[in-house]
Amino acid sequence: MADVFYYVGVDVGTASVRAALVTREGLVKSTAEEPISIWEPQSDHYVQSSTEIWEKCCTVVKEVTQSVERSQVRGVGFDATCSLVVLDQNFQPVAVNQDGLRERNVVMWMDHRAAEQAARITNTGHEVLSRVGGVMSPEMQPPKLLWLKENLKESCWNTAAHFFDLPDFLSWKATGSLTRSLCTLVCKWTYCPPEGWDASFWTSIGLEDLLENNFFKIGSVTCPPGSPVGGGLTQEAAADLGLDPGTAVGASLIDAHAGGLGVIGADVKGFHLPCENQPITSRMAMICGTSTCHMAISERPLFVPGVWGPCLSAMVPGMWLNEGGQSATGRLIDHMVKGHAAYVQLQEQAQQRFPSTGENIYTYLNSHLSLMAEVKSCSAVDLLGSSLHVWPDFHGNRSPLADPTLKGMVIGLSLSQTLDDLALLYLATVQALALGTLHILENMKKAGHDIRTFFLCGGLSKNPLFVQIHANATGLPLVLPDQTEAVLIGAAILGACASQDYSTIQEAMKKMAKVGTVVQPDPELQSFYERKYKVFLQLFAHQREYQDLMNQK
């Protein structure tokens, strides 16, 4: 057994930490998951604990590696949400809220407390904004840092000595190295290789103190994802994780980008896809869970209004990345379904239908919609959504409008609140999210991207209705991975590259990412979705009109 080697991928998502033990061929041998706490001390403030997150990382890694020898684990890779971790000069947590609870030292990615700071940064018109779609998002780190300086100067800002993106915190915790991944710094912090930090930007927004000691607090040394970090696991981290000291650790990725690595490079020969025999630039990775990220890569920089990037070497070394996204997808579906008057009835019906199989409410809703379509003689479930329309920006619009102030809309409601009505609202919400993806896709195409196939992963990719509607609405085939845990595969690819068992990320992707199922669009629904898309865009136009009317003096 000693000549069989493995890699460990660790994924820190919004609400849980997961790990997988993965073979050289990309097969997942075991997985483990632990929940992590989220606190909401006030509206739009979401915080976590880096201490708890690391403890949960150690728990899951020990669990997935318990059946193999330590020497068989060749490398470890981490991915995480792009949350902001604050530590003092002794690398101890610093509180990021007025409550002063030190352990709560992580400003989460979805924390929108810095919306006003983000708007001010956008209004500077600084040239670095061209690489984030022209608009600074409150989900990026500069506005969050500015908020901390302006609101917690004594208790946080003056005490802080290290600001990490969460993926970089994990690689530091594992190796003791302060080297940052280009993925995090380029995508969320405005770093631009090869020039590096733009001092004029930080000065223009009032954060000139970060220039001190060659930007030491936010990162002076960088490397591409998958590069070996430090000397591998330190003695302390190895003991925490149950692995050998010196085990290779790859420079980390943001969680969505790890999902992109886990799917976008798969060998598609024999699947008759339009991206076959085409460069990898003809593919888009969609990582869909609590939120959704749309990843497209190019050989030259492409500037897409309202879409983040172009970012060099942020996912695939040497390639430029554009990242579109929707701030609330799985979270929006849950919000719409669980807030409906018929939700309790739905739970009861789902429990009766699937008493022992563990199937969830969405499996029940999907089957319920199929029955409704049969009763109404609809040739496809999609057609049930012809008179109910949703604008899905309940948590603002990340792309392509880049407007965090936008709100959600539902058009076509009646007084009825039956289970059928709940099912239709669920359907209309999924359709709206798919049309939002089409909106992003069209803007990327206008800027020069030639996307021919989607590659999906994440929790929502396991919902067949969500997947089929995205194929139907965009008119493009969707590829689902052979291994359902594509984000963990992506993290493991980092470990494989750091161990130097693979010479490049591209080589590792091709060998470790595999095609599972291909979902084709239904051509008979093309005209239906063309009409529904026109309605979708009208909802946005009307919302702008309403806002303008109400803002008149």
UniProtKB/TrEMBL annotation:
InterPro entries (alphabetical): ATPase_NBD, Carb_kinase_FGGY, FGGY_C, FGGY_N, FGGY_RbtK-like
Which terms does the UniProt entry file under GO BP?
Answer: pentose metabolic process
**What are the record's GO terms for cellular component?**
cytoplasm
Which segments constitute the Carbohydrate kinase FGGY C-terminal domain?
Answer: 284-498
Keywords for this entry?
Kinase, Transferase
Molecular function (GO) terms listed? D-ribulokinase activity
Q: Which positions fall inside the Carbohydrate kinase FGGY N-terminal domain?
A: 6-262
NADP listed as a keyword? no
Similarity comment: family membership: Belongs to the FGGY kinase family.
NCBIfam families referenced in this protein's UniProt entry, alphabetically: 5C_CHO_kinase (TIGR01315)
State the protein's name.
FGGY carbohydrate kinase domain-containing protein
State the species of origin.
Answer: Channa striata (Snakehead murrel)
